[in-house]
Amino acid sequence: LPLVVTEFAVAGGGEARVGLAVAELLIFYAQVGVAAACQRLALEEVEAAPWLAPLRLVAEHLLERAAPIELVKQVRKDMSVGTRTIEVPLVHAAAFVDPDGGAGSLVLLHRDGAASRVLTIDVPEDWTATAGAQWAPPTPDHDARRQPVAPEALAWAQEGARVQVTLRPHSLAALKFAAP
User: Fold this and answer.
1) Residue closest to 10 by CA, chosen among 63, 51, 56
2) DSSP code per residue over 129-180
3) Which pick of 43, 58, 67, 144 has the fewest CB atoms within 10 Å?
4) Angstrom distance (rounded) from CA 130 to CA 143
5) Model confidence at 1, in pLDDT bands (50, 70, 90)?
6) Which alpha helices (DSSP H) does 33-85 contain, by range?
């Protein structure tokens, strides 16, 4: 898809779930190959909008090309949506690389609101994790407009080509990688 234009209107809500929903939309765009996206947002107080921190976190980790992700194991969970129950993966991810292959990034949305989750990521042999950040509101209905949640450092451990991170409940995390 060359271009997608969406409108996201929030009527007086400042819940953290708004920021997580916008981030999930951006991850989805990367997965389906959207080359450019225009997001029209209608909010009362744009500068205090709860989606700004996660939107910036995703933007800081975008590189020129989306990269494929091979899932070895995907944990799924039943979630209620209105009157229905649907099965969803607990981690939604998008990866990006620059054209010369010297840098990469990974953006992760953790949907589980009850528990942290350790995620193992296998990267090319010579790649190194260089930076990590996360946006983790205390609850999905946290009023991020009145009590903003700032992104914080994301800890990771790397041994060879294997990187492990712990994703906090209902959080957005991102990692940057470098190749020699």
Assistant:
1) 51
2) EEEEEEE--SSTT-BTTTS----EE--EEEETTEEEEEEPTTEEEEEEEE--
3) 67
4) 32
5) low
6) 52-60
